[in-house]
Amino acid sequence: MSTQYFAKLDDNNVVVDMAVVTAEFMEANPERYLGTWVETFLDVEGKNYAGVGYTYDAVANNFIMPTSVEP
Question: For every residue of 5-62, which 3-state class applies, written as one string?
């Protein structure tokens, strides 16, 4: 089993948490991974790796970087 990267989304599809875990572990422990989780990938051309504050675009299957960062 290889390590995978997942982003937890809020109701507005904004990333609020990240996890480095296998999909099998997430499926075996649903009480630890409540809500909506979407896999994100490192080094995939044309796709952004998720980060807290990014927005998930389900149509493009991509994460959109926030346009501004509050201090």
Answer: EEEEECCCCEEEEEEEECHHHHHHCHHHCCCEEEEECCCCCCCCCCCCCCEEECCCCE
Per-residue pLDDT tens digits for 20-71: 999 999 999 999 999 999 999 998 999 999 999 999 999 999 999 998 756 5
Question: Model pTM?
Answer: 0.88
- Closest by CA to 5, choosing from 41, 33, 47, is 41
Any residues with CB less than 8 A from the CB of 26 and at least 6 apart, and which? 6, 19, 32, 33, 37
